[in-house]
């Protein structure tokens, strides 16, 4: 019997070996025959206690105990006979029948029977695996070399690449579960690929394909095909870790992936025969294993962007490797127009270690920014139809590079880059021009929700992926997508009337992260509500996340000229009451107390030399440009010089800074019913400020930096206003339709500035009158105090004084208006601003005068402290406190606060607050990083809001 068995086994081995060494179809047929000969037969299942007797967790459920008595190459044997005179042999009786009878007569669910069954299945399975291993060793390695390389794992070294790319602060890079590379264009990065075998430099063809957008195109620069060259010898590995393929998952017992276009098979290293030598690669804890799937079920086949759409043949690959960009027949590079070497993508082999190759890819400084995917395409020389496409799991974010001189975003000063690119907190300026109020804001551009939201907004903008390497187009798209004014495609809805019950009030936000996270979790639904300074903070966040240097700028007394006259016209009747929308109801001009926009830093190759640097973009919807609510980028230098003909929207920005404020009063003797009143011609654009990059002031406003001189020349070199208006309107001379009164002005008027007024305290409005003539003058005066929105619109009249009196020659008079807290307390709106308007008319000379001023009521600061020191990984307590300045109860109270590294944006309800009460609220936090952390918080209620504060909290490691 033994001789027969050995002869059968030898014959099978010889047949299998000869078939396999024949290669091609014969080899595949021989392999299949050998594996089938070694596999076990399946028979009807036998159950014990309702479970199959052949069931062993982790093993095949189709094994039959009787089949393990059969050796490969031999017919099924009968059961072994028992020794002794009673032993009998029964012809025609199935061994399974005897087994069933024995199991039937055995005790039900006997532990010995189950144990024996489990043991024999386990031992038989191990034996089968050893036999499979022996069979695989007989197969020549040259058989496998006929197949294209298959990618098993990829590693993009997200953390290590980020150090060179200045992106190490991004949460996406540092994610412990699924890190994604964030790379800056104009630099190189490393990534490693482990194949299923060692590559053949003469026969294996590898292409790395990078795709951006839903329809990547070679000619548009959104599909990059990089052929891997084998001409360069392996170089010394200069990676921070002297390990190649570290984290690729080479340790024993780690699941191993064999990827094909149609199936993905998972096996275990150490228990299944390997089809190629396994490189000696050390495992580390810094890189995680990345796969498409860890399950045994094949995932649905994903369409590959590497193949053309429709049922057509795949493109012919290069027959021989060629240098990137070199003209070769059949090369896709022929489709690309000639471009400078510095603007080309490039790939090289950084090092090869066994079946693991580390590539070095150079991103050109003109590459489109956004979300990219990487595909590894492998084939064999002369086998164009035999190809494997592997899509890497990682989403690759490519952003602008202010550190690269070749990038149009280059910013030379390192301190400026730290402030305008890397600083994740700052200030937005509100208040009035003589009482600016800085409000702390957490930009949070490195939060894991920000960069994905920015990419999604670009997708919603409709900007072509091929245009996303142009910062001008990118910034213009950002200015249109932050607001959701006329459609539902924007990020945030603007509202200015104080009605926020169906959303979140603008003053309740503490930073951009909460807004962007709500936007993503709500499926791209616009967030409610925001105002210009909130829009400005969001623009800073989006721009800095994309690598665009950006700052928030506030223009105090900002004009909104709706009819292109470069004037802000206001009309009053004889009693001094404002005539809404003018006498013809077609004038919607306004003058905002403050308006926040943004400056972005870039070169402007589309403009003449000297107009680069800071560019103005405005995300607050005011006027349509090209049928879209967008504004900019307008060159700051062009605005300063009055060169309003340059793109984009330079004339509109110029009017915001330089429009003339014109007041008209109803007059019977006027030809058109109104006369122009004297007013302050320097009112518009009184002060332009931003945060000082060199100062941090949590308590006060010493970190304010005035940049008015950058926008408006102060040395008398300002361009002639009428010439600028004429050039923007397309004719040489501007006709003045409204002439002012040509009388002698011998009486002077002055509206006194109001000093700081605490919230809840009374105040006085004063107007000085001085008669400089030698005759008495009869003067009609009107003094009005009203609550107003920061857009300049009147919300409610508080008090009004009117009178006619005589001012003696050479004498001075003072007109006062006293307003109590009871008169304004229930009439205030956002920012608690008061507008004072004064008018005067001299009867003898028909001199008319008008002026207005705005000031905010100051609210108490919100104090932020800690209860004891804070330590990373340990619970801590933040304490918020302020004193109620009102003599009434505060209802519907809540706190909003956040601090990157301590607490994500959070909103907490609070009880009613008593009149004059010292409010204290505590909340638990768990610090995640050490260092100085900025915490911002606000308190809101039905009776009072915009109580905010900030503090720097030190967290120990």
TrEMBL record:
Residues 88-113, 289-331 are annotated as: Disordered. Residues 319-331 have a biased composition (Polar residues). It holds the Pfam family Transglut_core. Residues 524-621 form the Transglutaminase-like domain. One of its GO terms (molecular function) is protein-glutamine gamma-glutamyltransferase activity. Residues 297-306 have a biased composition (Pro residues). It comes from the Eukaryota. Belongs to the transglutaminase superfamily. Transglutaminase family. This is Transglutaminase-like domain-containing protein.
